[in-house]
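Team,

Forwarding the record for the chain on the shared tracking sheet. I've put the sequence and predicted structure together so nobody has to dig through attachments.
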Amino acid sequence: MRTGDGTNRTAVDWLASAAPEPAACRWEWERHPLGVALLPAGRLWDVLVVPEPLARPTLDVLTVLLDRPGPVLADRGDRRIGFFVPAGTAGRWLGTGVRAAGNGSWIVVPHPGRPAAGVRWLVPPDGSGVLTDPGLLELAMHEAAAVVGPVSRAPRAAAVNGRAARPGGCGAGGSVP
């Protein structure tokens, strides 16, 4: 259902339901000068963050495979793109160079119907709860890598409890994507 200001109320409700206090999340979106709120990953969804040069080509391949992938976020300049996947995926993801934000991580999330600073929706949530299948995302990454060609490897992050460490840590000055 669309509200008078053009936002998708269902998408707002779905995203806010991931917050410990959904009303506080809505308040944050309304009043935060950047138009964003911090939401915990690992409750309704995890986020897999693909860096350039594979980020955009992966989304392009994914949109060929699916009519509509799950929600997808991008940082300024599309240098990193975050794909919303089922909760629990981050703990099992083994892809090199892909940051996995799951339980214990916080994600900077813009309101689904308004512009925000620093992060934007490439595929906004529709409120249905549809997420990107991690197997299809992996396939899309392989296809994108074949198109892009050899990708130089960035230095590997140190592993912490089986997951890649996040510089600065989410919720402590760092953000994902």
